[in-house]
Amino acid sequence: MSECPNCPECGSEYAYEDRGLFVCPECAHEWSAAAGGDEEQQKVWRDAHGNVLADGDTVTVIKDLKIKGSSAVVKVGTKVKNIRLVDGDHDIDCKIPGIGAMGLKSEFVKKG
User: Fold this and answer.
1) What is the pTM of this model?
2) Among 7, 65, 84, 108, who pairs with 93 as Cys (CB 3.0-4.6 Å)?
3) Mean pLDDT of the residues in the chain
């Protein structure tokens, strides 16, 4: 059996490894086995004005956006509620009223 580190949250010695992550059965905290405690290097998403975005935020579109393969357009000022941040070219997954599920780039939205 390999030696697992103690949980960084509660200090439990019963942590175990599961699919590349260490898991604490007492407090349910999970951390990366490869990072070795470098949890500060998480990706930060920012809007067009430099404000930090988080899952569940409401954003406003700041530019007319043509929808590829359609004649529809997302108009300036469209509010999008409950966004989800993802890695990739279009880093915001959301549902736009009247259009449906869509991916947006954070450079074309502002928080609020």
Assistant:
1) 0.61
2) 84
3) 86
